[in-house]
TrEMBL record:
The organism's place on the tree of life at top rank: Bacteria
TM region(s), chain numbering: 6-25, 34-53, 65-84, 96-117, 137-159, 171-188, 194-213, 225-243, 255-276
Keyword Membrane included in the entry's annotation: yes
Name of the protein this chain belongs to: DUF5692 family protein
Keywords: Membrane, Transmembrane, Transmembrane helix
Alphabetized InterPro entries for the sequence: DUF5692
């Protein structure tokens, strides 16, 4: 196949199991702050002390600085978003409202740095096949554009009801899709043999809820599914790379070029549209929402 080697039926079934599992645990965390605290505070403490030193140490495929930083930054996002959602007055604090954008930008920047780093790597590195090339630079630039087009964090609100979701009306479908393409390209470029699950399944597990379950809460879905996946893969690193369910990348340079080109094209398009909206309506993206005139924005705002 173009992106991956042959996928046996049981790997395809497992892909759907992973997708469903991530979505289910995300929904459980949404519905209960106590489940969220157990998942994103208590469990990581236990894993940090008792599990990860053995499973995610030096030489492991998840033993790099990136994996350790990524799991804790995702967890920090989950806990910060919980503070915004459940501590009285936090959703009115303008400095706290900047936190989601900051943690999102940091997460993207971590991956951009890794993409640039992998540009000069080739062969087996930390148990993962690396094929560095211009595609890493292309996708790194796409990631930087993705950061620049983050907007509207001052319009973040907490929804009414039991789940008290963190809703970001200005974070609309076109930015999410550009992010998804960029992030898949990043995983395909830098952890290619993990991308069947850590790229496709993980990204879809937060995009489906954002489009169909709770619109406007994409970043909350993303942080929670990412934290769940990172904790799982650091505890069971063999699952994505060595188990019978593993699906290897095709390691095709053509595929690497294509996914990174799509990523760069999508993010250039969003960047151009972003600048167009700012200049046409004379909107300062640091002070007001950029897309408040769009139907998709209004639909999310009205629901919350």
């Amino acid at each position: 196949m173009f992106l991956f080697e042959a996928m046996p039926w049981y790997s395809i079934v497992m892909w759907f199991v992973v997708l469903a599992g991530l979505m289910l645990v995300n929904e459980l965390a949404r519905m209960s702050k106590w489940v969220s605290l157990a998942l994103f505070l208590v469990l990581p403490i236990v894993l940090t002390i008792a599990v990860w030193p053995n499973t995610a140490g030096e030489g492991s495929s998840v033993g790099t600085w990136f994996h350790w930083v990524k799991v804790y930054s995702a967890l920090a996002g989950c806990l910060g978003f919980m503070a915004l959602r459940f501590i009285k007055g936090m959703d009115k604090n303008k400095f706290m409202l900047m936190f989601p954008a900051i943690i999102l930008a940091i997460n993207i920047l971590e991956a951009v740095i890794r993409d640039f780093q992998v540009y000069s790597l080739n062969g087996m590195v930390d148990g993962v096949m690396m094929i560095g090339g211009p595609w890493n630079i292309m996708n790194g630039i796409a990631g930087l554009l993705n950061i620049i087009t983050i907007s509207g964090w001052m319009g973040i609100v907490v929804s009414k009801g039991r789940s008290r979701d963190m809703v970001w009306p200005d974070q609309l479908w076109f930015w999410i899709i550009a992010y998804d393409i960029w992030n898949f390209a990043y995983v395909y470029n830098c952890v290619s043999d993990h991308s069947f699950y850590a790229g496709a399944a993980l990204l879809i597990s937060c995009t489906i809820p954002a489009f169909f379950f709770k619109k406007g809460a994409w970043l909350q879905h993303r942080a929670q599914t990412l934290a769940i996946w990172m904790m799982f893969t650091m505890s069971f690193p063999a699952f994505v790379g060595e188990s019978k369910f593993a699906v290897q990348s095709s390691h095709s340079e053509t595929a690497l070029w294509v996914v990174s080109a799509l990523s760069l094209a999508a993010n250039i398009a969003v960047f151009i549209y972003h600048i167009y909206k700012i200049t046409k309506h004379k909107r300062n993206p640091l002070k007001v929402e950029v897309y408040s005139d769009l139907k998709a924005y209004k639909a999310v705002a009205e629901q919350n």
